[in-house]
Predict the structure.
Amino acid sequence: MKYATIVSTETLADHLQDPDWCVIDSRFDLAHPGWGGAEYQKAHIPGAIFADLDRDLASPITPASGRHPLPLPDRWQSTVSQWGITPATQVVAYDSAGGSLAAVRVWWLLRAYGHSRVAVLDGGYPKWLSEHRPLETVLPPARPIIPFSGQLNPRFWVSVEDLIHLYRDSKVRLIDARAGERFRGEIEAIDPVAGHIPGALNRPYTQNLNPDQTFKSPAQLREDFGKLLGDIRPQNIIAYCGSGVTAGHNLLALEIAGLSGGKLYPGSWSEWIRDPERPIETGA
């Protein structure tokens, strides 16, 4: 069976010894960038490979970029090659933040590069721990290197140049995954300018989750997004956040809801505000 959105802890536990499954630990903390790697060294799901958001899932920041630019294609291809995946490999990514940091970046990148057998562990590492499932503290044996030649599909994303021409289009809706107070510009503890891209709607990624950090049901998510978006076609949705990572959470939630086709603006707010000529809004 192919899993392309989320996978349960029970299902993953049943496949820990399956050579056609690959588990990626992508735990990360924006305030403490080395935290995820340190936690991985302490313990992780058996067989999991660690992927660091800054090193493996993004490229270096430039004067014009956001805080987590997409990895350069050749670097990403090299990273995935070292994971040893084939078209038949089921990849499962997990983190400790309901999928937001940074399992959804793994999910989105692999899909955008043509590997559709990728899912996020529903409930993530905290749920795995709460169920007293197995852990290991040693590094897993290296997987065989299998060349990965996937190419970034332009249907999955928009550039800042694209967005300048799209954000005022009445048929297009931007969805901002940041917390409401950041969206409204009431506080901004991370980026130097507060507010949001004009016309954007606010859907904090936390609204996609149940109290136990599992995703809401497809029916509930479909109802939620229906109220938010009205008759906007899913293909005309553009997701963003602060740096293009948690935005993927809303795209994953849309997929779970059966609303496929939304795009990511990877540069997100931190790239948009690099140019003072680009307009911003505050308030709801």
About this structure: The two ends are 43 Å apart (CA to CA). Residues 58 and 70 are 5 Å apart (CA to CA).
